[in-house]
Amino acid sequence: MWRNMGGTETSDGSRIHTLPEGTGRESGDRTTARGSCFVCKGILENREEGFFDTRFGIPGRYTVQRCTSCGFEQLYPTPGPADLVTLYESHYNFGGETNTTYTRLREWFLFSIFYRLWVRIDGDTSFHLPVGSGRLLDVGCNEGRGLRMYSQNGFQVEGLELNQAAAAVARDAGFVVHSCLLEDFDPFCRYDVVVLSNVLEHSLDPRRMLEDVRRLLSIGGTVWISCPNSESWLRRVFRRFWINWHVPFHISHFNHETLRSLLEQIGYSDIRIWQITPALWVANSTVARLFAVEGKKTTQLRSSLLIFLLMALARFVLFPALWLANKSGHGDCLLAVGTRR
């Protein structure tokens, strides 16, 4: 998976790379030193402490720091690039989980009519509904599920993916997938759309990532972004068990203002940002709160029945709360579109 050395869904694997427990000391390529804001180079202050991995039991304690100048939040200690590669290769998709009840149901659901109906009701965090044409690049395309969706919607699709095993699966399905860092990618032709679906929060340098995406876009081309909202109501409800802390993988935390400001600074125009609260994200935070134990994998996150029941509860019982949260600026997911002029 390629998420600027990051991704959304990771997993338990055999190789575990342990990061220092919030000491702030460098250890080779293991962490970056306590330093300045990724976005504006401002001074950082500790916002919340004591976070641990609620998904896969990876050892370590983490702090979320806030920039006193721009309000952007970032993880501390920060994994270095080499550690992130190892972590994703080791833990992605629950250690390469295949042919389980969960994965079979997920695959069936994603490519059924029920999925398209569901995202119209629940919200489209991965931009699987827009129909169009032109060249589209999916950054962090993983095994190509998104590429299949975008292709069916009329786009000429390509992917960018550093995880060689995942890239091979997408290529076997007939897709063009590039395997290099975003900053090193120099395509023969620019793209009309670049998708950053749950990608930006994994970036060690979100400003550089968005600058590189702009470089890849044709004039009038658009970037599609989805990422967690650091002002989400679920953050307040679930505290350290909020699923979108996702340490040590989620490194950069945006809210509506910090995301818009960065896009404007880089030169995007016609910026639109809105919010949704996906039922799956509510379900995952609930499961983490009920079952997560430090140092242990939360296997209940792969329980199809439990997740389905919690999703139904969130969408059809709690929908007034979700709607109010979205309208008040406290939805769980930010969706943004910006244009290169």
Describe the fold and architecture.
- There is one protein chain.
- The protein is an alpha/beta fold and 341 residues long.
- It has one domain: Rossmann fold (3-Layer(aba) Sandwich).
- It has helices at 81-91, 93-96, 101-110, 113-122, 145-152, 164-172, 206-216, 233-238, 256-266, 279-291, 304-316, 319-327; strands spanning 31-32, 44-51, 62-67, 73-76, 78-79, 135-139, 156-160, 176-178, 191-197, 217-228, 252-253, 268-276, 333-340.
- It has a seven-stranded mixed beta sheet with strand order 8-7-6-9-10-13-12, sandwiched between helices.
- Strand 3 and strand 4 (73-76) form a beta hairpin.
- Helix 10 crosses helix 11.
Q: How are the SSEs placed, and which strands pair?
A:
Blueprint: E1 31-32, E2 44-51, E3 62-67, E4 73-76, E5 78-79, H1 81-91, H2 93-96, H3 101-110, H4 113-122, E6 135-139, H5 145-152, E7 156-160, H6 164-172, E8 176-178, E9 191-197, H7 206-216, E10 217-228, H8 233-238, E11 252-253, H9 256-266, E12 268-276, H10 279-291, H11 304-316, H12 319-327, E13 333-340
Parallel strand pairs: 6-7, 6-9, 7-8, 9-10
Antiparallel strand pairs: 1-5, 2-3, 3-4, 4-11, 10-13, 12-13
